Amino acid sequence: MASLYDDNFGHYEDDGDREGTLEFYREIQRTNVRKSCLGCGRMVSIQPHYSYCNRCSDKIERGMDI
Question: What range does the domain containing 48 cover?
């Protein structure tokens, strides 16, 4: 089972469809851009329309200030 990490979605596991999971992962990685996260300021590889990395998005969803 593959364990993948992405600044958009965090960690995720192969759901049994290894080919489909890897295809999705590669497509996301291909379309990512490098930019500074508005929450933590780290340079991350995220989708062009995102402003926050997964780590900061999780904090926001839990009601934490970043």
Answer: 3-61
Distance of CA 5 to the CA centre of its chain: 7
Distance of CA 61 to the CA centre of its chain: 15
- Six-digit token string for 8: 């958009």
Q: Where residue 59 falls among pLDDT bands split at 50, 70, 90?
A: very high
Contacts 24+ apart (CB under 8 A), 27-30: none
**Overall number of domains in the chain:** 1
Q: Facing residues of 45 across strands?
A: 34
Verdict on whether the full-model pTM lies above 0.85:
no
> Which token pair is 49?
């329309």
Does any domain span residue 66?
A: no
